[in-house]
């Protein structure tokens, strides 16, 4: 967005000692990027003048002689412009003034000395196509002004235009008021606040309704007869390449660049109804502003109760209810609209303007309140707000200890951290450190997580203080998984790569019972808006893709991330069944996993189990419930981070035992419904047993006889013979 340096400094209360270089450093330090700084013009020495007399040059029909009073003396200046009249105030290049390399001097024109040249908008560095033809072709004139003032300073013409790149997640900063707050926070001073001199004087009879994700607010105003924006405000619009239309429309455009909130205006006397509601309509044919007829198949519109289209919100209004210079009863519409539908409407209308470009980005409700306040600071007679509820600050938790591990520095123990808090509090953050809570400014929509809050701390702490450090030359636990992949390939599986991000709708399957779903605050597509809770969601799509192409025997695996940066391994196969996948898991990790049948509604309970080790949930095996609509295959998923805790061991060398292993069969007599599970658990506690397998099972006289086959060494045989003597 293009910003005026002078306006930013005024709003941020920055004094003249703060230079362009200082502002550039501040902008780049707090997370934005200054792409260019362009001087508005190269003018020096112009002065204010008051036209005392006008008359035609008798020697030239197209020259008008102006007698002009300046602060120091009266001068005669000739012009070809036809828009001037006696008592106008103007600016002039007097002798000695300059524009670029041109230095002005007195010269004779058709027999009369002309002491300089009058100033038009074009000479000041503005695009003349953005004003009326009369103003564009003529001299820039205005109401009474102190002739002793410097025009460049008074009209903010000694200015730089800053092209600031705003990050996608900070669309709120596409506004003067927010960017000024950011700069003021950097320099630790208070920015200007909006002053509303008048209170609401009446209740509007208009009714606004919301629709789906579209929030519609506004108010009604009765305009003063002499209402107009100041010259400074009009020039600020021109600096943003916004065309001047009429005072009310210009005020709505000024609100856009000052608050970042699109505003639409209606002439109340041209409306046939007092109810407005957003809606999506098909086959819309209307005449938009500029007398252009459009016809689109599907659009987001503002309608009345008779379904008459009144506007394309945040894109463009219609001629039939347009505000003109004679409009005095105005309805201001201030809304937040569905970005996807707004983008479609903009594309169909083939309209690309500052309003639509802002509307297709995200908003927080605080933007509505900011726009209401800014507009009312310019008005004298306005209604109570329509459909605007009190907006409260969102509260999130934060953890400085976790932030330290991410940032690599205990920034909160630095002496400058108190200044960081001063800056953030000036932006509207409210901290509750004992309870690890923070309230977020109402205009910020992008702060959801601990990491988001870390970014806010570091923006004002200073990224340059994060010193780079060499990585430690130590073995990172994740490296073991490289060997793991080779082992899995050897078992007959093919590695695949899938997206970590999925849609919220597909993320319903949650086999690890995570309590928090990690959603993105900004995303490019609804298909990639949240971090998956299981890799089964993603790998299922690969299986389904192959099945649809008649490739019916597949076995895939992936090592990837789920939920809050948890590494997991997933296997998916139409080739191997439950028991075969179970055996492959045992072959991979050589741990005595416990498989417990699940009764969760998320699983096909007849063929699914949770996987435990030492009473810790590590994963699951089987099939998800058919209602989840995953591909028909067997799945196995293991939390590798938790599993790694049990794999890391300090192995000690033991002398090789050359003796042959022994075998023993033990028969247990159990009640009919009694489980063999506890007996197997006791056997596993005996050192030296290498394997336990089922040899025989039979029911006799309401008793269940189970014979287990053991393979073990000599010492364990002696122990087993002693303990289970009567069972062998």
From TrEMBL:
<dbReference type="InterPro" id="IPR045864">
    <property type="entry name" value="aa-tRNA-synth_II/BPL/LPL"/>
</dbReference>
<keyword id="KW-0694">RNA-binding</keyword>
<feature type="domain" description="TRNA-binding">
    <location>
        <begin position="40"/>
        <end position="153"/>
    </location>
</feature>
<keyword id="KW-0067">ATP-binding</keyword>
<dbReference type="GO" id="GO:0005737">
    <property type="term" value="C:cytoplasm"/>
</dbReference>
<dbReference type="InterPro" id="IPR033714">
    <property type="entry name" value="tRNA_bind_bactPheRS"/>
</dbReference>
<feature type="binding site">
    <location>
        <position position="446"/>
    </location>
    <ligand>
        <name>Mg(2+)</name>
    </ligand>
</feature>
<dbReference type="InterPro" id="IPR045060">
    <property type="entry name" value="Phe-tRNA-ligase_IIc_bsu"/>
</dbReference>
<comment type="subunit">
    <text>Tetramer of two alpha and two beta subunits.</text>
</comment>
<keyword id="KW-0648">Protein biosynthesis</keyword>
<keyword id="KW-0479">Metal-binding</keyword>
<dbReference type="GO" id="GO:0000287">
    <property type="term" value="F:magnesium ion binding"/>
</dbReference>
<keyword id="KW-0030">Aminoacyl-tRNA synthetase</keyword>
<feature type="binding site">
    <location>
        <position position="455"/>
    </location>
    <ligand>
        <name>Mg(2+)</name>
    </ligand>
</feature>
<dbReference type="GO" id="GO:0004826">
    <property type="term" value="F:phenylalanine-tRNA ligase activity"/>
</dbReference>
<keyword id="KW-0436">Ligase</keyword>
<dbReference type="GO" id="GO:0005524">
    <property type="term" value="F:ATP binding"/>
</dbReference>
<dbReference type="Pfam" id="PF17759">
    <property type="entry name" value="tRNA_synthFbeta"/>
</dbReference>
<dbReference type="InterPro" id="IPR002547">
    <property type="entry name" value="tRNA-bd_dom"/>
</dbReference>
<keyword id="KW-0963">Cytoplasm</keyword>
<feature type="binding site">
    <location>
        <position position="456"/>
    </location>
    <ligand>
        <name>Mg(2+)</name>
    </ligand>
</feature>
<dbReference type="Pfam" id="PF01588">
    <property type="entry name" value="tRNA_bind"/>
</dbReference>
<keyword id="KW-0820">tRNA-binding</keyword>
<dbReference type="InterPro" id="IPR005146">
    <property type="entry name" value="B3/B4_tRNA-bd"/>
</dbReference>
<dbReference type="GO" id="GO:0006432">
    <property type="term" value="P:phenylalanyl-tRNA aminoacylation"/>
</dbReference>
<feature type="domain" description="B5">
    <location>
        <begin position="391"/>
        <end position="468"/>
    </location>
</feature>
<dbReference type="InterPro" id="IPR041616">
    <property type="entry name" value="PheRS_beta_core"/>
</dbReference>
<dbReference type="InterPro" id="IPR005147">
    <property type="entry name" value="tRNA_synthase_B5-dom"/>
</dbReference>
<dbReference type="InterPro" id="IPR009061">
    <property type="entry name" value="DNA-bd_dom_put_sf"/>
</dbReference>
<keyword id="KW-0460">Magnesium</keyword>
<dbReference type="InterPro" id="IPR020825">
    <property type="entry name" value="Phe-tRNA_synthase-like_B3/B4"/>
</dbReference>
<protein>
    <recommendedName>
        <fullName>Phenylalanine--tRNA ligase beta subunit</fullName>
        <ecNumber>6.1.1.20</ecNumber>
    </recommendedName>
</protein>
<dbReference type="GO" id="GO:0000049">
    <property type="term" value="F:tRNA binding"/>
</dbReference>
<feature type="binding site">
    <location>
        <position position="452"/>
    </location>
    <ligand>
        <name>Mg(2+)</name>
    </ligand>
</feature>
<comment type="similarity">
    <text>Belongs to the phenylalanyl-tRNA synthetase beta subunit family. Type 1 subfamily.</text>
</comment>
<dbReference type="InterPro" id="IPR004532">
    <property type="entry name" value="Phe-tRNA-ligase_IIc_bsu_bact"/>
</dbReference>
<dbReference type="InterPro" id="IPR012340">
    <property type="entry name" value="NA-bd_OB-fold"/>
</dbReference>
<dbReference type="Pfam" id="PF03484">
    <property type="entry name" value="B5"/>
</dbReference>
<keyword id="KW-0547">Nucleotide-binding</keyword>
<dbReference type="Pfam" id="PF03483">
    <property type="entry name" value="B3_4"/>
</dbReference>
């Amino acid at each position: 967005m293009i910003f005026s340096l002078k306006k930013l400094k005024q709003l941020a209360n920055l004094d003249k000692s703060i230079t362009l270089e200082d502002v550039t450093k501040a902008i780049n330090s707090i997370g934005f990027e200054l792409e260019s700084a362009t001087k508005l013009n190269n003018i020096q020495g112009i002065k204010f003048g008051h036209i005392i007399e006008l008359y035609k040059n008798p020697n030239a029909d197209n020259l008008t002689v102006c007698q002009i009073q300046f602060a120091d003396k009266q001068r005669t200046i000739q012009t070809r412009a036809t828009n001037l009249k006696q008592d106008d105030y103007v600016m002039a290049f007097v002798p000695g003034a300059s524009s670029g390399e041109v230095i002005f001097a007195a010269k004779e024109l058709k027999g009369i000395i002309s002491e300089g040249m009058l100033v038009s908008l074009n000479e000041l560095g503005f695009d003349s196509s953005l004003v009326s033809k009369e103003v564009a072709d003529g001299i820039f004139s205005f109401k009474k002004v102190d002739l002793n003032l410097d025009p460049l300073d008074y009209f903010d013409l000694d200015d730089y235009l800053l092209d600031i790149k705003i990050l996608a997640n900070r669309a709120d900063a596409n506004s003067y008021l927010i960017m000024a707050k950011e700069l003021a926070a950097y320099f630790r001073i208070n920015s200007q606040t909006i002053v509303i001199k008048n209170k609401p004087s009446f209740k509007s009879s208009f009714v606004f309704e919301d629709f789906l994700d579209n929030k519609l607010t506004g108010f009604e105003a009765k305009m003063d007869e002499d209402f107009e924006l100041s010259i400074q405000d009009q020039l600020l619009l021109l600096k943003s390449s916004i065309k001047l239309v009429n005072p009310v429309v210009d005020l709505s455009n000024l609100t856009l660049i000052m608050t970042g909130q699109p505003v639409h205006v209606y002439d109340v006397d041209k409306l046939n109804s007092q109810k407005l509601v957003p809606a999506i309509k098909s086959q819309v044919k209307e005449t938009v502003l500029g007398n252009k007829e459009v016809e689109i198949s599907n659009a987001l519109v503002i309608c009345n109760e008779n379904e008459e289209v009144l506007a394309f919100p945040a894109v463009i209004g219609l001629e039939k209810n347009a505000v003109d210079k004679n409009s005095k009863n105005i309805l201001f519409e201030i809304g937040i609209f569905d970005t996807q539908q707004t983008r479609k409407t903009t594309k169909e209308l083939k309209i690309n303007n500052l309003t639509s470009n802002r509307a297709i980005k995200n908003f927080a409700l605080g933007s509505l309140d900011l726009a209401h306040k800014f507009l009312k600071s310019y008005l004298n007679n306005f209604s109570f707000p329509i459909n605007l509820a009190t907006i409260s600050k969102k509260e999130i938790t934060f953890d400085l200890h976790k932030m330290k591990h991410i940032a690599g520095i205990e920034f909160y123990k630095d002496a400058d951290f108190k200044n960081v808090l001063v800056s953030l509090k000036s932006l509207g953050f409210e901290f509750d450190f004992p309870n690890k809570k923070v309230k977020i400014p109402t205009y910020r929509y992008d702060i959801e997580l601990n990491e988001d809050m870390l970014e806010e701390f570091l923006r004002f702490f200073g990224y340059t203080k994060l010193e780079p450090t060499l990585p430690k030359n130590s073995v990172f636990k994740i490296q073991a998984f490289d060997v793991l992949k080779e082992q899995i390939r050897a078992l007959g599986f093919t590695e695949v790569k899938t997206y970590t991000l999925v849609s919220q709708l597909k993320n319903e399957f949650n086999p690890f019972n995570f309590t928090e779903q990690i959603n993105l605050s900004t995303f490019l597509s609804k298909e990639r808006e949240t971090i998956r809770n299981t890799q089964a969601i993603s790998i299922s799509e690969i299986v389904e893709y192959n099945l649809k192409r008649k490739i019916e025997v597949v076995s895939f695996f992936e090592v990837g991330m789920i939920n809050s940066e948890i590494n997991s391994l997933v296997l998916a196969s139409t080739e191997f069944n439950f028991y075969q996948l179970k055996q492959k898991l045992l072959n991979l990790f050589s741990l005595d996993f416990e498989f417990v049948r699940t009764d969760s509604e998320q699983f096909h309970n007849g063929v699914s189990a949770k996987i435990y080790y030492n009473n810790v949930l590590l994963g699951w095996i089987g099939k998800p419930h058919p209602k989840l609509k995953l591909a028909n295959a067997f799945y196995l998923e293991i939390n590798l981070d938790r599993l790694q805790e049990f794999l890391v061991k300090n192995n000690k060398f033991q002398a090789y035992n050359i003796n042959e292993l022994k075998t023993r069969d033990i028969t247990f007599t159990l009640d009919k419904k009694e489980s063999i599970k506890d007996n197997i658990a006791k056997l596993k506690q005996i050192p030296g047993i290498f394997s336990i397998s089922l040899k025989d099972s039979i029911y006799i006289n309401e008793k269940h006889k189970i014979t287990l086959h053991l393979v073990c060494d000599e010492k364990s045989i002696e122990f087993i013979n002693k303990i289970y003597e009567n069972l062998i």
